[in-house]
Amino acid sequence: MRARFCENAPTFMMYRRSLFALALAITTLGLACSSGGSGSAGPAPSGTAQATQKEARKLVVYGWSEYIPDAVIQGFTKETGVTVLSETFSSNEEMLSKLLAGGTPYDLIQPSEYMVEALAKQNLLMELTPAAVPNLKNIDPNLRGLPHDPNYKYCAPYMAGTVGIVVNTEKVKDPVKGYKDVFQEKYKGRIVAVNDAREMVAWSLSTLGIGPNDITPETLDKAKPVLSEWVKFVKVFDSDSPKTALLNGDVDLGVVWSGEAAILYEKNKKFTFVLPDEGAHLYIDHLCIPSGAGNKTDAEKFINYVLRPEVSKLVSDKFPYLNPNIEARALLTEAQRQNPASYPPALMSNMKKASTFRDIGKISTDVDKLVTDLKAQN
Amino acid sequence: MSRAMIELHNVSKRFGAVEAVRGVDLTIAEGEIVTLLGPSGSGKTTLLRMIAGFELPDKGRIVLDGKDVTHAPPYERDVRLVFQSYALFPHLTVEQNVEFGLKMMGVSASERRERVKDAISLVRIEGKEKARPHELSGGQKQRVALARALVCKPKVLLLDEPLSALDAKLRDAMQVELKKLQQKVGITFVFVTHDQQSALVVSDRIAVVNEGRIEQYAGVAEIYHRPKTAFVASFLGESNLLTARVLSRGDGKVRLSLAAGIEVIANDDGSRQYGSQVTVAIRPEKIHVEIFEFEMDGTFHGQVTDEIFRGPLAQLSIITESGLELTAVVATRTADRDTPSKGEQVTWWVHRDDVVIVG
Amino acid sequence: MGVVLAVPLVLWLFALVILPNLILLVYAFCDRDDFGQVVPKFSLEAFTRLADTSYLKILLRSLALSGVATTICVLVGFPVAYFIGRTSAKWQNKLLILVMIPFWISFLVRTYAWMILLRSEGLINALLQYTHVIAKPLELLYTDFAVLIGIVYAYLPFTILPIYASVEKLDPSLMEAASNLGARPLRTFWSVILPLTRPGIVAAALFVFIPSVGMFAIADLMGGARNQLVGNVIQNQFGQGRNWPFGAALGVVLLTLFLALLSWALKKDGEEALHR
């Protein structure tokens, strides 16, 4: 599960996000008000009224909650007359179960890279018609040829990010360069980490020089003693809004999604972002057309629309992830491009070296079991 | 008179705007059955609850067997109460209910067993020891409640309308039984009721309570025959309440005019002035009625306007020529000796002892 | 006629209670594919995994935490419920509305409110530091203590209401009778009030215990997800853990546990009812 976010709030689920904004507003006595409403101010464009008209075409989009800005959807509807109906999920697995259960015929889904791979393997995705999505050319060449879909046959990248280290430099004076520097006895009870077993295993493997996708019973055995120590040092596990504990001063450093780190950096420069020197990995969310889609034509139109630089920029404005669209990146402000969490210099200069998660199939159970066990021993 | 068991001295109690009890003085002797009789809302239940300790008086003192208990909590008073609803513990058996008070008193297990057995046989509910309250009839619950209170051998047993939930037949039987039981155990009983019939049957003395005050406190015969107030006269049995004018006094007698041409003699209570207005009470059964018309000193004529046949007795409504209306009760007669009937002229008179000045 | 009226209830019970639990039971004995989806093939794998001591440990931890929370809820809820039940009817309604008011606010908002109170720079720590009671902030949030507070807070109204219902039915003359028979207040409480309100207390305890064992949101938010409860483990099996059969098997274990608990409570209650 990865968190999507809006400007200043977690986005585990839509309601949770707005509630958090409320909670934040209470604590800061209104300081947060001006920005708190930005994400949910306008009504969601449901478009049901238009959908009932005979002529109306509609597109059912199943995406991460609070991840596609309203402006993008409204712009698309205005231009094409296609009504967009949206449903949201908060984890790849949730999306998968609903997709497999049938019911709603989704026209577009928004899986992460390892889920794209799994879905493609199971023939659950339609191939894109290259002529219909010419804007795929805008994608960063560094993000091409990735193992989950090397030639973007099935999907178009939407947004990307990394997992990295955030340090509150007012509290932590020693240099922190990698995971090893974070998970130390001296920081016990001062660390936040995303609550994600696959991530944690990947970090521990990287300190042993093992790749994030090399997950076998043997490598898990090797990761176990490392993780067993680490779990003891962590105070908070939170995938939805790991920035909260940092912002509130409950912890001083952590391993979080880069988007979360970008917000922390925007709020206060004392929160620095560090790309782990053991090796960083990228995660990329995509737009795909599931095999049961009823409106492939408009789905492709939507993908192509989102890949326009000026549209993609709208996404970056709202969600400061790494934008895979080079042309869109060129439209960003200097400050946006200089945010070290959104665009870590070390990563940008050497993106080819960053790895991505692959589908690991059934062994994900063992990954989960390992972390559950270690937490239970705590 | 024997030793005082309960003394109330100038006791008052107010609930918000309602003055439930106003300056009551009352002494109940050891071994007596006293009934607090009054209509609902008269304050009799409040009096009882103050004796039990559930309410504290605003003013005055309560003395129990010589000891001031005005402010003592209920569990420190040696009185036991039989609740109107019986208030048996639904989760306990009959036996356990009866045993409850003994346990609280710290009586040893062996003695408890004996006393519970005795109490159960005293109220004659043997065989129901293991039953739960919901399995009992109203009469049986009543007996258990009695046993539960009596087994503690309290100085005073308070009974709050204990017969009101029973049907008429059972009530009559229980009245007699209660009286016998009291004589057997010799405990002071204070009985609260609004039912004058039960009060008369059960009590040695009756305190008639009205509007927070005691109107009269006396033995049953006296209170019936010599009511002090109009309220007592009418609440306890039936009475003709009539307005009269004092014509003359002397020789311990007073001459009263009830209406034009109707003058009766009453015993002088010494307080009446010539010419003053008084209220007299005459019990219906004290009015003698004959169907023969005759003239004598102290006899009057009247016409029967209504007749209600009640088996052994008949109730007659009589009106005199001067317009005085009376109710009389006469024994019914066999067919050949006629009871006066509607429309007939009758002759009536009343004995001077039976004309009671009540106000 | 009676049969016809029962139809909606039976349908409801079947569709929303029996059927889902049957599906749960079937899933627990099925195999799974790479996605973690259920494959209709008999397998005992999920149940063999249950034997793992770490899950037993998590289960026991959850039961213990819920047990403590239940005890606190009943201890705190009883006096409140008793007070409300014994006050005048006019006040009863007002006080009951006060008890229910938290339900008008989303559970998550209330949980966040607690997080704001408990965190290192939160209200409680700030107050204690300001008044020099403590020098350094106490660690309140992201601890078992916080999870306990969260559970007690969330479920306290559920304890108050059933106890209130049984207190309200209590005939006040029974307490007077006990007092009249020489029982001091404490004795009246133990010998009369407690046994007579027992059904309400048992119901209250079940209302807290059963849902709190399976609860996961509070452990995630207020406990920092560090110490997992069985609810977290189950939730995870249907998500990242990708093991629906195992999640279902854990569900079946909890369900069995609760059914046993319920039937015990009902049997006790039934015996009690017979004696009324």
Task: Please render the helix and strand layout as text.
The complex is a heterotrimer of chains A (378), B (359) and C (276).
Chain A: E1 5-6, E2 9-10, H1 14-27, H2 33-36, H3 48-51, E3 57-64, H4 70-80, E4 82-89, H5 92-101, E5 108-109, H6 113-121, E6 155-168, H7 179-182, E7 191-193, H8 197-207, H9 217-233, E8 234-237, H10 242-247, E9 253-257, H11 258-267, E10 271-274, E11 281-288, H12 296-306, H13 309-318, H14 326-331, H15 334-338, H16 345-348, E12 355-356, H17 364-377
Parallel strand pairs in A: 3-4, 3-5, 7-8, 7-9, 11-12
Antiparallel strand pairs in A: 1-2, 6-9, 6-10, 6-11
Helix pairs in contact in A: 8-9, 8-17, 9-17
Chain B: E1 4-15, E2 18-29, E3 33-37, H1 44-52, E4 59-64, E5 67-68, E6 79-82, H2 94-105, H3 109-122, H4 138-150, E7 156-160, H5 168-185, E8 188-193, H6 196-202, E9 205-210, E10 213-219, H7 220-225, H8 230-235, E11 240-250, E12 253-259, E13 262-267, E14 277-282, E15 287-290, E16 300-310, E17 313-319, E18 325-331, E19 345-350, E20 356-357
Parallel strand pairs in B: 3-8, 3-9, 6-7, 7-8
Antiparallel strand pairs in B: 1-2, 1-4, 4-5, 9-10, 11-12, 11-14, 12-13, 14-20, 15-19, 16-17, 16-19, 17-18
Chain C: H1 2-28, E1 30-32, E2 38-42, H2 45-50, H3 53-86, H4 89-104, H5 107-118, H6 123-130, H7 144-169, H8 172-180, H9 185-214, H10 217-222, H11 230-237, H12 244-274
Helix pairs in contact in C: 1-12, 3-7, 3-9, 7-9, 8-9, 9-12, 11-12
